[in-house]
């Protein structure tokens, strides 16, 4: 009847036989080394598997975001289509009211007048009203050049005081 030892899953037949006990005890470190190597490979395998699942989940998340953007684009295009349809209906209503004589003003005439007004050249520009001021630029350049020089001089005087 096989007897199972606590160190390995294999039984030892000759518990009274000292040769078998000595052989088992001497082979125990080798089997423990092999077991640690197998455990290390198993750990690396589990790490690679978890990395694979993480990359796959990230890729699926990116695909989900892309799908949401395409859905959002579809909804926005539907909203713009509805607005364009509403503007068309409004334009047709105004045109019909004008053609029936209910409204005396032509809606196209108002648009034409505003476009003509925008195209007129203006005689006075902003430069005519206000001359350009150059002192802020000179102040900025003066500070950017003078500040490092002043800091250098200040640190140089501190170093001279420390050396004395």
Write up what this structure looks like.
The chain has helices at residues 18-100, 107-119, 126-129, 135-163, and strands at 3-4, 11-12. By secondary structure, the protein is mainly alpha-helical. The longest helix has 83 residues, at 18-100. Helices cover 79% and strands 2% of the residues. It has a two-stranded antiparallel sheet with strand order 1-2. The protein is built from 4 helices and 2 strands. It is flat.
Lay out the secondary structure.
Blueprint: E1 3-4, E2 11-12, H1 18-100, H2 107-119, H3 126-129, H4 135-163
Antiparallel strand pairs: 1-2
Over the alpha carbons, how many angstroms does the gyration radius reach? Answer: 44 Å
Number of strands: 2
The class by helix and strand makeup works out as mainly alpha
Give the overall form: flat
Relative helix content = over 70%
Average residue pLDDT: 80
Low-pLDDT ranges: none
Beta-strand share of residues = under 5%
Number of helices: 4
- The span between the termini is 94 Å
Strand order of the largest sheet: 1-2
Secondary-structure element order, N to C: EEHHHH
Biggest sheet overview: 2 strands, antiparallel
């Amino acid at each position: 009847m096989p007897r199972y030892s606590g160190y390995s899953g294999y039984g030892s037949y000759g518990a009274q036989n000292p040769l078998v006990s000595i052989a088992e005890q001497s082979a125990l470190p080798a089997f423990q080394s092999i077991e640690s190597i197998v455990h290390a490979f198993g750990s690396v395998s589990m790490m690679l598997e978890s990395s694979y699942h993480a990359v796959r989940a990230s890729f699926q998340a990116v695909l989900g975001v892309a799908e949401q953007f395409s859905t959002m684009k579809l909804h926005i295009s539907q909203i713009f289509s509805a607005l364009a349809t509403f503007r068309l209906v409004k334009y047709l209503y105004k045109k019909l009211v004008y053609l029936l004589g209910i409204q005396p003003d032509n809606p196209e005439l108002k648009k034409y007048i505003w476009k003509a007004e925008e195209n007129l050249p203006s005689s006075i520009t902003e430069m005519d009203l206000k001359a350009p001021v150059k002192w802020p630029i000179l102040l900025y350049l003066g500070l950017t050049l003078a500040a490092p020089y002043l800091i250098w001089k200040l640190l140089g005087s501190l170093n001279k005081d420390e050396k004395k």
